[in-house]
Specification:
- 41% of the residues lie in helices and 18% in strands.
- With 435 residues, it is α/β, with parallel strands linked by helices.
- It has 2 domains: 292 residues, Mur-like, catalytic domain (UDP-N-acetylmuramoyl-L-alanine:D-glutamate ligase, 3-Layer(aba) Sandwich), CATH 3.40.1190; 131 residues, Protein-Tyrosine Phosphatase, Chain A (Alpha-Beta Complex).
Length: 435
Protein backbone atom coordinates (compact mmCIF):
# COMPACT_ATOMS: atom_id res chain seq x y z
CA UNK A 1 0.00 0.00 0.00
CA UNK A 2 1.49 3.32 -1.14
CA UNK A 3 0.98 6.02 1.48
CA UNK A 4 1.77 9.25 -0.36
CA UNK A 5 1.42 10.98 -3.72
CA UNK A 6 5.21 11.06 -4.05
CA UNK A 7 5.40 7.27 -3.55
CA UNK A 8 2.61 6.74 -6.10
CA UNK A 9 4.29 8.97 -8.69
CA UNK A 10 7.63 7.27 -8.07
CA UNK A 11 6.13 3.86 -8.73
CA UNK A 12 4.32 5.05 -11.88
CA UNK A 13 7.47 6.62 -13.32
CA UNK A 14 9.50 3.51 -12.49
CA UNK A 15 7.55 1.83 -15.30
CA UNK A 16 9.34 4.07 -17.84
CA UNK A 17 12.22 1.59 -17.86
CA UNK A 18 9.90 -0.85 -19.67
CA UNK A 19 9.68 1.48 -22.67
CA UNK A 20 6.95 1.03 -25.28
CA UNK A 21 5.33 -2.39 -25.68
CA UNK A 22 2.64 -2.22 -28.40
CA UNK A 23 -0.39 -4.46 -27.98
CA UNK A 24 -3.68 -4.54 -26.09
CA UNK A 25 -3.48 -7.87 -24.21
CA UNK A 26 -2.10 -6.37 -20.98
CA UNK A 27 -4.74 -3.62 -21.04
CA UNK A 28 -7.54 -6.11 -21.62
CA UNK A 29 -6.23 -8.30 -18.77
CA UNK A 30 -6.18 -5.38 -16.29
CA UNK A 31 -9.53 -3.95 -17.37
CA UNK A 32 -11.27 -7.31 -17.05
CA UNK A 33 -10.14 -7.51 -13.42
CA UNK A 34 -11.31 -3.93 -12.86
CA UNK A 35 -14.81 -4.81 -14.04
CA UNK A 36 -14.32 -3.36 -17.54
CA UNK A 37 -14.83 0.30 -16.62
CA UNK A 38 -14.26 1.33 -20.24
CA UNK A 39 -17.56 -0.25 -21.30
CA UNK A 40 -19.56 2.34 -19.36
CA UNK A 41 -17.92 5.35 -20.98
CA UNK A 42 -19.57 7.68 -23.46
CA UNK A 43 -16.24 8.46 -25.10
CA UNK A 44 -14.79 10.41 -28.02
CA UNK A 45 -11.45 9.00 -29.22
CA UNK A 46 -8.93 11.49 -30.68
CA UNK A 47 -5.92 10.33 -32.72
CA UNK A 48 -3.55 11.86 -35.26
CA UNK A 49 0.00 13.15 -35.58
CA UNK A 50 -0.48 16.76 -34.45
CA UNK A 51 -3.40 18.69 -33.00
CA UNK A 52 -4.79 15.95 -30.73
CA UNK A 53 -4.45 17.94 -27.53
CA UNK A 54 -5.96 21.10 -29.03
CA UNK A 55 -8.88 19.12 -30.44
CA UNK A 56 -9.48 17.58 -27.01
CA UNK A 57 -9.46 21.10 -25.55
CA UNK A 58 -12.07 22.34 -28.04
CA UNK A 59 -14.36 19.36 -27.40
CA UNK A 60 -14.04 19.68 -23.63
CA UNK A 61 -14.57 23.44 -23.59
CA UNK A 62 -17.72 23.36 -25.77
CA UNK A 63 -19.20 20.46 -23.81
CA UNK A 64 -18.45 22.27 -20.54
CA UNK A 65 -20.24 25.35 -21.86
CA UNK A 66 -23.25 23.12 -22.57
CA UNK A 67 -23.24 21.93 -18.95
CA UNK A 68 -21.62 18.50 -19.34
CA UNK A 69 -19.15 16.98 -16.90
CA UNK A 70 -16.21 16.05 -19.11
CA UNK A 71 -13.24 13.85 -18.34
CA UNK A 72 -10.11 14.09 -20.47
CA UNK A 73 -7.12 11.76 -20.75
CA UNK A 74 -4.14 13.37 -22.48
CA UNK A 75 -0.36 13.11 -22.75
CA UNK A 76 2.21 14.24 -22.03
CA UNK A 77 1.71 16.79 -19.28
CA UNK A 78 3.19 20.32 -19.35
CA UNK A 79 3.20 21.54 -15.74
CA UNK A 80 1.78 18.79 -13.53
CA UNK A 81 1.47 15.01 -13.96
CA UNK A 82 -2.16 15.13 -12.77
CA UNK A 83 -3.11 17.08 -15.93
CA UNK A 84 -3.20 13.78 -17.78
CA UNK A 85 -6.43 12.83 -16.00
CA UNK A 86 -8.63 15.92 -15.73
CA UNK A 87 -12.26 16.79 -15.01
CA UNK A 88 -13.68 19.88 -16.72
CA UNK A 89 -10.12 20.95 -17.48
CA UNK A 90 -8.89 20.65 -13.88
CA UNK A 91 -6.27 18.00 -12.95
CA UNK A 92 -7.45 15.38 -10.46
CA UNK A 93 -6.25 15.61 -6.86
CA UNK A 94 -2.99 14.14 -5.53
CA UNK A 95 -4.89 11.84 -3.16
CA UNK A 96 -6.89 10.48 -6.12
CA UNK A 97 -3.65 9.61 -7.94
CA UNK A 98 -2.53 7.74 -4.80
CA UNK A 99 -5.87 5.95 -4.54
CA UNK A 100 -5.78 4.94 -8.21
CA UNK A 101 -2.21 3.70 -7.97
CA UNK A 102 -3.16 1.47 -5.04
CA UNK A 103 -5.91 -0.03 -7.22
CA UNK A 104 -3.64 -0.65 -10.24
CA UNK A 105 -0.35 -1.65 -8.58
CA UNK A 106 -1.55 -5.06 -7.28
CA UNK A 107 -2.81 -5.88 -10.78
CA UNK A 108 0.51 -4.81 -12.26
CA UNK A 109 2.38 -7.03 -9.79
CA UNK A 110 0.13 -9.96 -10.67
CA UNK A 111 0.41 -9.31 -14.41
CA UNK A 112 4.21 -9.28 -14.14
CA UNK A 113 4.12 -12.95 -13.13
CA UNK A 114 2.20 -13.95 -16.29
CA UNK A 115 3.45 -14.55 -19.83
CA UNK A 116 2.16 -11.09 -20.78
CA UNK A 117 4.74 -9.38 -18.56
CA UNK A 118 4.69 -6.04 -16.74
CA UNK A 119 2.49 -3.18 -17.97
CA UNK A 120 4.30 -0.05 -19.18
CA UNK A 121 3.94 3.39 -17.62
CA UNK A 122 1.44 4.47 -20.29
CA UNK A 123 -0.62 1.29 -19.84
CA UNK A 124 -0.74 1.87 -16.08
CA UNK A 125 -1.86 5.50 -16.51
CA UNK A 126 -4.44 4.54 -19.14
CA UNK A 127 -5.91 1.90 -16.82
CA UNK A 128 -6.01 4.49 -14.03
CA UNK A 129 -7.87 6.97 -16.25
CA UNK A 130 -10.43 4.45 -17.50
CA UNK A 131 -11.09 3.19 -13.95
CA UNK A 132 -11.40 6.76 -12.66
CA UNK A 133 -13.84 7.90 -15.37
CA UNK A 134 -15.76 4.63 -15.45
CA UNK A 135 -16.00 3.71 -11.76
CA UNK A 136 -14.58 6.26 -9.29
CA UNK A 137 -15.96 9.49 -10.76
CA UNK A 138 -18.30 8.79 -13.71
CA UNK A 139 -18.46 11.44 -16.45
CA UNK A 140 -21.17 12.60 -18.83
CA UNK A 141 -18.62 12.50 -21.67
CA UNK A 142 -15.01 11.32 -21.73
CA UNK A 143 -12.50 12.50 -24.34
CA UNK A 144 -9.55 10.13 -24.74
CA UNK A 145 -6.37 11.13 -26.59
CA UNK A 146 -4.37 8.40 -28.32
CA UNK A 147 -0.83 8.12 -26.96
CA UNK A 148 1.07 6.70 -29.95
CA UNK A 149 -0.28 5.47 -33.28
CA UNK A 150 -3.69 3.97 -32.73
CA UNK A 151 -4.05 0.30 -33.63
CA UNK A 152 -1.98 -1.00 -30.71
CA UNK A 153 -2.22 2.06 -28.48
CA UNK A 154 -3.32 1.38 -24.90
CA UNK A 155 -6.38 3.60 -25.31
CA UNK A 156 -7.71 1.49 -28.19
CA UNK A 157 -9.69 -0.70 -25.81
CA UNK A 158 -12.60 1.76 -25.70
CA UNK A 159 -15.75 1.62 -27.82
CA UNK A 160 -16.31 5.33 -28.60
CA UNK A 161 -19.42 7.12 -29.82
CA UNK A 162 -17.19 8.99 -32.32
CA UNK A 163 -13.54 9.04 -33.36
CA UNK A 164 -11.43 11.88 -34.72
CA UNK A 165 -8.14 11.67 -36.63
CA UNK A 166 -6.69 15.18 -36.76
CA UNK A 167 -3.95 14.80 -39.36
CA UNK A 168 -1.24 12.34 -40.37
CA UNK A 169 2.45 13.09 -40.81
CA UNK A 170 5.87 11.52 -40.49
CA UNK A 171 6.46 10.97 -36.77
CA UNK A 172 7.50 8.00 -34.63
CA UNK A 173 8.61 6.34 -37.87
CA UNK A 174 10.75 3.78 -36.00
CA UNK A 175 7.56 2.38 -34.46
CA UNK A 176 4.73 3.27 -36.85
CA UNK A 177 6.47 2.82 -40.20
CA UNK A 178 8.51 4.87 -42.64
CA UNK A 179 5.78 5.88 -45.11
CA UNK A 180 2.59 7.92 -44.83
CA UNK A 181 0.55 4.83 -45.79
CA UNK A 182 2.05 2.72 -43.01
CA UNK A 183 1.52 5.46 -40.42
CA UNK A 184 -2.05 6.03 -41.67
CA UNK A 185 -2.74 2.30 -41.28
CA UNK A 186 -1.73 2.49 -37.61
CA UNK A 187 -3.76 5.66 -37.03
CA UNK A 188 -6.77 4.08 -38.78
CA UNK A 189 -6.70 1.36 -36.14
CA UNK A 190 -8.96 3.49 -33.92
CA UNK A 191 -11.79 3.30 -36.48
CA UNK A 192 -14.44 1.02 -34.97
CA UNK A 193 -17.34 -0.96 -36.42
CA UNK A 194 -20.34 1.28 -37.21
CA UNK A 195 -18.72 4.23 -35.40
CA UNK A 196 -18.35 7.55 -37.26
CA UNK A 197 -14.87 8.90 -37.97
CA UNK A 198 -14.13 12.61 -38.48
CA UNK A 199 -10.85 13.70 -39.99
CA UNK A 200 -8.83 16.77 -40.95
CA UNK A 201 -6.35 14.67 -42.94
CA UNK A 202 -5.63 16.26 -46.33
CA UNK A 203 -2.90 13.96 -47.65
CA UNK A 204 -4.39 11.82 -50.45
CA UNK A 205 -2.24 8.80 -49.63
CA UNK A 206 -3.32 8.84 -45.99
CA UNK A 207 -6.96 9.50 -46.90
CA UNK A 208 -7.05 6.43 -49.14
CA UNK A 209 -5.97 4.27 -46.20
CA UNK A 210 -8.55 5.84 -43.87
CA UNK A 211 -11.35 5.41 -46.44
CA UNK A 212 -10.50 1.74 -46.89
CA UNK A 213 -10.55 1.17 -43.12
CA UNK A 214 -13.82 3.09 -42.76
CA UNK A 215 -15.46 1.03 -45.52
CA UNK A 216 -14.33 -2.23 -43.92
CA UNK A 217 -15.81 -1.16 -40.56
CA UNK A 218 -18.99 0.33 -42.06
CA UNK A 219 -17.92 3.58 -40.46
CA UNK A 220 -19.29 6.88 -41.80
CA UNK A 221 -16.28 9.04 -42.68
CA UNK A 222 -16.61 12.83 -42.56
CA UNK A 223 -13.62 14.79 -43.88
CA UNK A 224 -12.43 18.38 -44.11
CA UNK A 225 -12.58 19.87 -47.60
CA UNK A 226 -15.36 17.48 -48.61
CA UNK A 227 -18.00 17.41 -45.86
CA UNK A 228 -17.01 20.43 -43.79
CA UNK A 229 -14.94 23.50 -44.64
CA UNK A 230 -12.86 26.31 -43.17
CA UNK A 231 -13.00 29.72 -44.91
CA UNK A 232 -12.67 33.48 -44.32
CA UNK A 233 -9.61 33.01 -42.10
CA UNK A 234 -8.25 36.10 -40.37
CA UNK A 235 -5.41 36.40 -37.88
CA UNK A 236 -6.58 39.03 -35.38
CA UNK A 237 -4.43 40.60 -32.67
CA UNK A 238 -5.45 38.20 -29.89
CA UNK A 239 -7.25 35.37 -31.69
CA UNK A 240 -7.86 33.48 -34.92
CA UNK A 241 -11.16 33.98 -36.76
CA UNK A 242 -12.79 31.77 -39.39
CA UNK A 243 -16.06 30.49 -40.84
CA UNK A 244 -17.09 26.85 -40.49
CA UNK A 245 -19.40 25.35 -43.12
CA UNK A 246 -21.12 21.96 -43.31
CA UNK A 247 -24.36 20.51 -44.64
CA UNK A 248 -26.04 21.93 -41.55
CA UNK A 249 -25.08 25.53 -42.39
CA UNK A 250 -22.48 28.18 -41.65
CA UNK A 251 -20.97 29.31 -38.37
CA UNK A 252 -19.50 32.70 -39.26
CA UNK A 253 -16.69 34.58 -37.50
CA UNK A 254 -15.84 31.87 -34.97
CA UNK A 255 -12.92 32.89 -32.77
CA UNK A 256 -10.12 30.85 -31.20
CA UNK A 257 -7.76 31.95 -28.45
CA UNK A 258 -5.34 29.19 -29.48
CA UNK A 259 -3.05 30.79 -32.05
CA UNK A 260 -2.03 29.64 -35.53
CA UNK A 261 -4.00 29.01 -38.72
CA UNK A 262 -3.64 25.23 -38.17
CA UNK A 263 -5.90 25.59 -35.13
CA UNK A 264 -8.85 26.36 -37.39
CA UNK A 265 -8.62 22.83 -38.83
CA UNK A 266 -8.41 21.29 -35.35
CA UNK A 267 -11.44 23.31 -34.24
CA UNK A 268 -13.35 22.36 -37.41
CA UNK A 269 -12.78 18.66 -36.75
CA UNK A 270 -14.13 19.09 -33.23
CA UNK A 271 -17.18 21.00 -34.48
CA UNK A 272 -17.93 18.32 -37.08
CA UNK A 273 -17.98 15.61 -34.42
CA UNK A 274 -20.07 17.76 -32.05
CA UNK A 275 -22.58 18.52 -34.84
CA UNK A 276 -23.00 14.81 -35.53
CA UNK A 277 -23.42 13.93 -31.84
CA UNK A 278 -25.90 16.77 -31.45
CA UNK A 279 -27.98 15.78 -34.47
CA UNK A 280 -28.05 12.14 -33.35
CA UNK A 281 -29.16 12.78 -29.78
CA UNK A 282 -25.95 12.01 -27.89
CA UNK A 283 -25.61 15.61 -26.67
CA UNK A 284 -27.42 18.93 -26.79
CA UNK A 285 -25.17 21.78 -27.91
CA UNK A 286 -26.31 25.00 -29.58
CA UNK A 287 -24.41 27.54 -31.66
CA UNK A 288 -23.80 29.92 -28.75
CA UNK A 289 -22.15 27.15 -26.72
CA UNK A 290 -19.94 26.24 -29.67
CA UNK A 291 -18.88 29.88 -30.07
CA UNK A 292 -18.13 30.51 -26.41
CA UNK A 293 -16.52 27.10 -25.91
CA UNK A 294 -14.12 27.56 -28.83
CA UNK A 295 -13.12 31.04 -27.66
CA UNK A 296 -12.48 29.86 -24.08
CA UNK A 297 -10.54 26.71 -25.04
CA UNK A 298 -7.03 26.67 -23.65
CA UNK A 299 -4.21 24.18 -24.16
CA UNK A 300 -0.81 24.70 -22.53
CA UNK A 301 2.36 24.68 -24.59
CA UNK A 302 0.73 25.38 -27.96
CA UNK A 303 1.68 28.87 -29.22
CA UNK A 304 1.18 29.89 -25.60
CA UNK A 305 2.13 33.50 -24.89
CA UNK A 306 3.76 33.88 -21.47
CA UNK A 307 4.54 37.59 -21.87
CA UNK A 308 3.27 40.19 -24.34
CA UNK A 309 5.96 42.92 -24.30
CA UNK A 310 8.50 41.82 -25.21
CA UNK A 311 6.77 38.68 -26.50
CA UNK A 312 7.82 35.36 -25.00
CA UNK A 313 5.96 32.24 -26.15
CA UNK A 314 6.29 28.46 -26.03
CA UNK A 315 5.14 25.87 -28.56
CA UNK A 316 5.61 22.11 -28.56
CA UNK A 317 6.59 21.73 -32.22
CA UNK A 318 8.22 18.29 -32.00
CA UNK A 319 7.97 16.90 -35.55
CA UNK A 320 8.17 18.29 -39.13
CA UNK A 321 4.43 19.01 -39.38
CA UNK A 322 4.48 20.76 -36.01
CA UNK A 323 7.54 22.85 -36.92
CA UNK A 324 5.91 23.86 -40.24
CA UNK A 325 2.73 24.95 -38.44
CA UNK A 326 4.89 26.84 -35.93
CA UNK A 327 6.85 28.54 -38.73
CA UNK A 328 3.62 29.56 -40.50
CA UNK A 329 2.15 30.98 -37.30
CA UNK A 330 5.31 32.96 -36.48
CA UNK A 331 5.44 34.30 -40.04
CA UNK A 332 1.79 35.37 -40.03
CA UNK A 333 1.67 36.83 -36.53
CA UNK A 334 5.10 38.44 -36.12
CA UNK A 335 6.01 39.56 -39.62
CA UNK A 336 8.53 42.41 -39.54
CA UNK A 337 9.59 41.77 -35.94
CA UNK A 338 12.95 40.38 -34.83
CA UNK A 339 12.39 36.76 -33.79
CA UNK A 340 14.73 34.57 -31.75
CA UNK A 341 14.03 30.84 -31.42
CA UNK A 342 15.31 28.42 -28.80
CA UNK A 343 15.00 24.78 -29.89
CA UNK A 344 15.65 21.44 -28.22
CA UNK A 345 14.47 18.01 -29.31
CA UNK A 346 14.72 14.27 -28.94
CA UNK A 347 17.37 12.63 -31.11
CA UNK A 348 14.95 10.05 -32.58
CA UNK A 349 12.91 12.74 -34.39
CA UNK A 350 13.29 13.75 -38.05
CA UNK A 351 15.54 16.68 -37.18
CA UNK A 352 16.96 17.17 -40.68
CA UNK A 353 13.56 18.18 -42.08
CA UNK A 354 12.86 20.41 -39.08
CA UNK A 355 16.14 22.28 -39.53
CA UNK A 356 15.37 22.85 -43.23
CA UNK A 357 12.18 24.62 -42.13
CA UNK A 358 14.03 26.71 -39.53
CA UNK A 359 16.62 27.68 -42.16
CA UNK A 360 13.88 29.16 -44.35
CA UNK A 361 12.72 31.40 -41.49
CA UNK A 362 14.15 34.88 -40.94
CA UNK A 363 15.11 34.20 -37.31
CA UNK A 364 18.06 33.80 -34.94
CA UNK A 365 18.28 30.13 -33.93
CA UNK A 366 19.61 28.98 -30.55
CA UNK A 367 20.08 25.27 -29.83
CA UNK A 368 20.15 23.78 -26.35
CA UNK A 369 19.64 20.52 -24.46
CA UNK A 370 17.72 19.24 -21.44
CA UNK A 371 17.91 16.29 -19.08
CA UNK A 372 15.93 13.49 -20.73
CA UNK A 373 17.07 10.01 -21.82
CA UNK A 374 16.48 10.54 -25.57
CA UNK A 375 17.32 14.24 -25.76
CA UNK A 376 19.89 15.38 -28.32
CA UNK A 377 22.80 17.45 -27.05
CA UNK A 378 23.23 21.06 -28.14
CA UNK A 379 26.32 20.07 -30.13
CA UNK A 380 24.50 17.20 -31.86
CA UNK A 381 21.75 19.62 -32.85
CA UNK A 382 24.35 22.11 -34.10
CA UNK A 383 25.88 19.50 -36.41
CA UNK A 384 22.49 18.34 -37.69
CA UNK A 385 21.30 21.92 -38.26
CA UNK A 386 23.97 22.46 -40.94
CA UNK A 387 23.56 26.12 -40.06
CA UNK A 388 26.77 28.01 -39.21
CA UNK A 389 24.66 30.99 -38.10
CA UNK A 390 22.95 28.99 -35.32
CA UNK A 391 24.16 29.20 -31.72
CA UNK A 392 24.63 26.26 -29.33
CA UNK A 393 24.44 26.51 -25.52
CA UNK A 394 24.08 23.39 -23.37
CA UNK A 395 22.79 25.41 -20.39
CA UNK A 396 19.19 26.28 -21.23
CA UNK A 397 18.63 28.25 -18.00
CA UNK A 398 21.61 30.51 -18.72
CA UNK A 399 20.55 30.90 -22.35
CA UNK A 400 16.98 31.90 -21.51
CA UNK A 401 17.95 34.34 -18.77
CA UNK A 402 20.46 36.00 -21.11
CA UNK A 403 18.06 36.35 -24.05
CA UNK A 404 15.09 37.52 -21.98
CA UNK A 405 17.12 40.12 -20.08
CA UNK A 406 18.42 41.66 -23.31
CA UNK A 407 15.14 41.72 -25.28
CA UNK A 408 13.66 44.93 -26.68
CA UNK A 409 9.88 45.46 -26.56
CA UNK A 410 9.43 44.80 -30.28
CA UNK A 411 11.30 41.46 -30.20
CA UNK A 412 9.90 37.94 -29.98
CA UNK A 413 11.44 34.96 -28.18
CA UNK A 414 9.85 31.63 -29.13
CA UNK A 415 10.89 28.47 -27.31
CA UNK A 416 9.95 25.29 -29.14
CA UNK A 417 10.74 21.61 -29.64
CA UNK A 418 9.95 18.49 -27.64
CA UNK A 419 6.92 18.65 -25.36
CA UNK A 420 9.16 17.15 -22.69
CA UNK A 421 11.44 20.18 -23.15
CA UNK A 422 8.48 22.57 -22.89
CA UNK A 423 7.34 20.79 -19.73
CA UNK A 424 10.84 21.15 -18.25
CA UNK A 425 11.32 24.84 -18.99
CA UNK A 426 7.84 26.35 -18.49
CA UNK A 427 7.94 26.70 -14.66
CA UNK A 428 11.41 28.29 -14.92
CA UNK A 429 10.27 30.72 -17.63
CA UNK A 430 7.23 31.80 -15.63
CA UNK A 431 9.47 32.49 -12.64
CA UNK A 432 12.02 34.48 -14.70
CA UNK A 433 9.31 36.55 -16.38
CA UNK A 434 7.71 37.23 -13.00
CA UNK A 435 10.97 38.54 -11.48
Amino acid sequence: MLQSYEEALGWIHSRLRLGIKPGLKRMEWMLERLGNPEKGLKAIHVGGTNGKGSTVAYLRSVLNEAGYKVGTFTSPYIEQFNERISVNGLPIQDNEITQLTNVIKPLSDELEETDLGSPTEFEVITAMALYYFGKMNPMDITVIEVGLGGRFDSTNVIEPIASIITNIGMDHTQILGDTISKIAFEKAGIIKQNTPIFTCVKNDEALAVLKEAANEKNSMMTQIGKDFFVSDYRSLEECEQFTYTSKWGDLKELQLSLLGKHQTDNAAGAIAALEYLNKNGFIQVDENKIRSGLKKAYWPGRMEILQQLPTVLIDGAHNPEGVQAFANAIGQRYKGRKVKIIFSALKDKDLTVMFKIFKQMDVELYLTEFDFPRAASAEELMVLSNNPMAHANSNWQELMRSLISSMRDDEVLAITGSLYFISTIKPFLKAVIGE
